[in-house]
Amino acid sequence: MSGSRPTARRIIGIETEYGITCASGTAGPPPMDADQAARALFDPIIQRGRSSNVFTRSGGRLYLDVGSHPEYATAECDRLEDLLAQDRAGDLIMADLADQANARLEDRGVTGRIHLLKNNLDAEGNGFGCHENYLVRRSGSFWQDAQTLVPHLVTRQILVGAGHIAPDARGRARYCFSQRADQTWEALSAATTRARPMINTRDEPHADAERYRRMHIIVGDSSIAQGSTLLKAGAMDLLLDYLESGGDLSDLALAEPMRAIREVSSDLRAAVALELADGRTITPVDLQHEHLERVTAHVQAELDPTDLQRQVLDLWGRGLEAVRSGRYEAVAAELDWAAKLQLLTRYTQRTGARLDDPRVARLALAYHDVTSGEGLRPRLERAGLLRRYIDQEACRAAVTRPPATTRARLRGAAVARAEDLRLDLSVDWVSLRLDDGVCRPVSLTDPFRAVDERVDALLAAMDDRGLDPGAGMRPA
Ligand SMILES: Nc1ncnc2c1ncn2[C@@H]1O[C@H](COP(=O)(O)OP(=O)(O)OP(=O)(O)O)[C@@H](O)[C@H]1O
Ligand SMILES: [Mg+2]
């Protein structure tokens, strides 16, 4: 590959909603429902910060909305290695909270254990999301770019879907690519719950609104395998670079994206004929292949890709080949749908259980369980059956260390100082404010700016305040 420039710097963040249940430790019913379990999980956070919406030392956001899906939004990342580490740090933060909550339950003599699930469908059939955020330039044709991405979002599930067991039209269980595909109702919309679009077009850039927009993609499955996260975000970043450099995908617009997204999910051979807007038809594999070829040509002509970006292109190609040939084992260490399918297939072959057997459902759920000591991922990773692109130490470190190259560095430093000195700090994505009635709020509208003397001054003011026992201290 012989281009010359790096990909344009782009802010990327991933928000994950987690499923939560409290499994009974006896034969009786669960000791608490999902709402109660979520509140038990967030209890120490609410005690400490008097809020269920806090920013962390990693620069990310921990959040419990109404309802029962605790959420972690990663800090702003502009390197794929940081995104992988921060995304995993979110799982670790949640798992630590669950450990603490389970210890409190045990102290109270409650026989039940809280489990956190990184999937997209709860036992009652309610869906919840994993959202990707990509900074895009306002000067580009956002609407057209957003529309242009729909065919990619419809078909990328054959690579980055998390895999799902669902009944077919005759009620028989079968394996499909995505949990989220059936939960999506529109291509583009500014409403998220009613319309369930693939891209949420609400204009909230968390940055200078004259220059930027935030592409808010809400159709993806949550990822367990780092390979899935890498390919999901890395392919989108490269596609956006291609489009922002004048690339065009409009000849691949689909006639009926909503119908297509369901058809793609349920055809494991990815050979279904999808109708294009111009009347031609194309299979999901061929459509993805076409995207990959254009992006690869763009990379070769213009870009000097990073090591992880090379791996994105490599995995993209191998993933398509695995689907086309039906030899999914080739990517079973890298892509969720293939990893889970291999696990379930081995189990059904060994035991003779069918896909609709409750034991198979439990095994599938264990793949998504991120609670310490419960889920399968750590074991699969240790055994080399799931590939780690970023080692566990780096992910652990990201729990308290924000990305170094974006404004998250400033936010993380300020949050850490406020926690250490027990000072009240108001934080959101674009500002920091010490609640002492003296310091002026610091506005951080440039997400690429990782060094800022105003934040240095704020940290110094915090040190001064922290020394003064009367000022700004929170009640113990
Ligand atoms: N300028 C930006 N461009 C792209 N992504 C950004 C930018 N600023 C922040 N982000 C990322 O966007 C995500 C915002 O998460 P958050 O959960 O607050 O989303 P939201 O869409 O604002 O809110 P909600 O979940 O309440 O609907 C984070 O992952 C963050 O890193
Ligand atoms: Mg969110």
TrEMBL record:
Annotated coiled-coil segments of the chain: none
The highest taxon in the source lineage is: Bacteria
Keywords attached to this entry: ATP-binding, Ligase, Magnesium, Metal-binding, Nucleotide-binding, Ubl conjugation pathway
Enzyme Commission (EC) number = 6.3.1.19
- Keyword Glycoprotein assigned: no
Give the annotated active site.
D65 (proton acceptor)
Pathway membership, UniProt: Protein degradation; proteasomal Pup-dependent pathway; Protein modification; protein pupylation
Q: Which residues bind ATP?
A: R61, T74, W429
Q: Which InterPro entries does this chain map to?
A: Pup_ligase, Pup_ligase/deamidase
A Pfam family found in this protein is Pup_ligase
Q: Which reaction does it catalyse?
A: ATP + [prokaryotic ubiquitin-like protein]-L-glutamate + [protein]-L-lysine = ADP + phosphate + N(6)-([prokaryotic ubiquitin-like protein]-gamma-L-glutamyl)-[protein]-L-lysine
Binding sites annotated in the UniProt record for Mg(2+): E15, Y63, E71
Query: Listed GO molecular functions?
Result: ligase activity
Q: Lyase: present as a keyword of the record?
A: no
Q: Which NCBIfam families match?
A: pupylate_PafA (TIGR03686)
The miscellaneous comment for this protein is:
The reaction mechanism probably proceeds via the activation of Pup by phosphorylation of its C-terminal glutamate, which is then subject to nucleophilic attack by the substrate lysine, resulting in an isopeptide bond and the release of phosphate as a good leaving group.
Q: What does this protein do?
A: Catalyzes the covalent attachment of the prokaryotic ubiquitin-like protein modifier Pup to the proteasomal substrate proteins, thereby targeting them for proteasomal degradation. This tagging system is termed pupylation. The ligation reaction involves the side-chain carboxylate of the C-terminal glutamate of Pup and the side-chain amino group of a substrate lysine.
The entry assigns this protein to a family as follows: Belongs to the Pup ligase/Pup deamidase family. Pup-conjugating enzyme subfamily.
Spell out the protein name for this chain.
Pup--protein ligase
The gene is pafA_2
